[in-house]
Fold:
Amino acid sequence: MATKQENLWTDINGDKVPAKYVSKFDKARDAVSRKIHKRFLAGRKMLEQIVRDSISDLDGLMKLKASVGAKGNFQTSSFDGLIQVSIDQQYNIQLDERVARARELMLEYVNSELSRLDKDTTFLRKLVEDSFRANAKGYLPISSILKLTRYEVKDARWNEARGILQDSMKPVPGKRYLNCRVRNTTQQDFKTIRLDLADCWPEDAAK
Structure:
């Protein structure tokens, strides 16, 4: 990033360049980049303050209520029912080291049954292999694992593996989301007020 000091500009390589050798366009793009950067920092601080103040308001409201339901989640609304505010706690499911044994048992079953050329067994083998294939971040596809636990197979190994998977699942708190939704009448669905740059793109600039 270029920086200016005593008529010297620092270029992307860290070299000092006299201002007279910096083109008009380079000076203009530097100025625009810094202006937008400053604007983004101000916007970020404003959003952080919005979240901080809103959480503080909700915390005060929660203290007035004996029970707020599930930990981490809270919802309130305006008296006319047209505004709804909530804190939504996302939960992720993690699997412990027992998952390796479950995979072994399930593959033992499907491989032993493949000699029968059973269409359902072939499908199950692919499902098992895909379900225990970690993504780039090392996580298993939980939705696929849950699907495996719903299959009922008349085999002791399969059912032992299902039990292992169910026992090894641990809900872990993830991100918390602050949402504000509005509607014009109680007969309409709520619409979230999105504090999202993409959602704020001006219509006349979309062309």
User: Anything to note?
Assistant: The chain has a mean pLDDT of 84. Residues 59 and 74 are 9 Å apart (CA to CA). The longest strand covers residues 169-182.
